[in-house]
């Protein structure tokens, strides 16, 4: 009797870890950094680097394994992906390979009796809440890097600060929206991000995003910047729908303005020109945090 988990441990993991260690080394990480990223010893990294660990050809040639190694390697090297997300992504691939796929075929070769059964056992949910949450946080990190690497972004930050937020697919409240804790501020001409994205830490930007979604907008992310006519005009001239709303309205002005519109572009703009004790603000909304950040960079900073 041989379990599929034995094939995973004895054949898939050594191959996968060696591929990932090789990828990270090629990206310039030191042996110690690779060991820390993968949670293994430096001696294990050395063995992988010197080809002292046997590798299964089937995994080396599988496009999905190769693609995941590249994606995790990039994410760990840039900091966009945490070890937790890397683990979850690898687990999802393993479970998929176990269900009527490559690992299942290997398992059936060693346990022929399994081939008699057509059904697959679902032992892992690829749409788990943890996976979705880590993906959203990774997207926000990527968007933040785009903004902070762009020259001049600090000049777009309003007095109340900026924030970049993205929500879970079925977001119902602020706790389902990831953003920067404490907001992004201009510190001596430099955009400063005080912490790693967290869920439930944004009130204003998250509320704008959720209100737009309640109005029927197909948006998952939002960023606020300062308001002036030139900013709104530049975004509108670039093809993004621009909608003004009244922050002093008694009802839900954002949902009301968005509801029923058939001219919303994938990335669109909401803005208000201020009110009593309310700073004028421009909001850019789109499908994900990186797209929103890229829109601001390409439209307002180039």
From TrEMBL:
Q: Which residues form the HTH cro/C1-type domain?
A: 20-48
Q: Classify the source by domain of life.
A: Archaea
Read off the lineage from the record: Archaea, Methanobacteriati, Methanobacteriota, Stenosarchaea group, Halobacteria
Q: SUPFAM superfamilies attached here?
A: AraD/HMP-PK domain-like, lambda repressor-like DNA-binding domains
Any GO MF annotation of the entry = DNA binding
By its UniProt entry, which SMART domains does this protein fall under?
HTH_XRE (SM00530)
Species the sequence originates in: Halopelagius longus
Mind telling me which Pfam families this protein's record contains? HTH_3, ThiN
Under what name is this protein listed? Answer: Helix-turn-helix domain-containing protein
Q: Name the InterPro entries on file.
A: Aldolase_II/adducin_N_sf (IPR036409), Cro/C1-type_HTH (IPR001387), Lambda_DNA-bd_dom_sf (IPR010982), ThiN (IPR019293)
From the UniProt record, list the coiled-coil ranges: none
């Amino acid at each position: 009797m041989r379990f599929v988990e034995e094939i995973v441990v004895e054949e898939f993991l050594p191959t996968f870890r060696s591929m990932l260690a090789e990828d990270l080394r090629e990206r310039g990480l030191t042996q110690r950094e690779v060991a820390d990223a993968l949670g293994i010893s430096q001696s294990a990294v050395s063995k992988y680097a010197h080809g002292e660990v046997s590798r299964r050809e089937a995994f080396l040639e599988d496009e999905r394994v190769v693609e995941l190694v590249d994606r995790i390697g990039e994410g760990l090297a840039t900091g966009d992906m945490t070890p937790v997300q890397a683990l979850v992504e690898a687990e999802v691939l393993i479970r998929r390979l176990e269900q009527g796929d490559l690992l299942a075929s290997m398992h059936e070769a060693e346990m022929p009796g399994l081939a008699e059964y057509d059904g697959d056992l679902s032992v892992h949910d690829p749409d788990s809440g943890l996976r979705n949450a880590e993906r959203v946080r990774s997207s926000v990190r990527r968007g933040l890097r785009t903004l902070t690497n762009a020259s001049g972004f600090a000049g777009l930050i309003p007095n109340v600060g900026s924030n970049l937020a993205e929500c879970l697919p079925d977001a119902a409240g602020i706790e389902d929206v990831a953003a920067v804790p404490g907001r992004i501020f201009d510190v001596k001409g430099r955009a400063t991000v005080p912490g790693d994205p967290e869920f439930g830490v944004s009130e204003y930007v998250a509320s704008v995003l959720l209100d737009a979604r309640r109005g029927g907008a197909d948006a998952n992310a939002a960023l606020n910047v300062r308001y002036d006519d030139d900013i709104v005009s530049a975004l509108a001239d670039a093809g993004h729908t621009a909608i003004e709303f009244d922050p002093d309205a008694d009802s839900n002005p954002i949902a009301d303005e968005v509801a029923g519109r058939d001219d919303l572009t994938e990335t669109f703009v909401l803005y208000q020109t201020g009110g009593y004790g309310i700073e004028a603000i421009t909001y850019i909304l789109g499908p994900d945090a990186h797209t929103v950040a890229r829109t601001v960079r390409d439209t307002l900073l180039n």
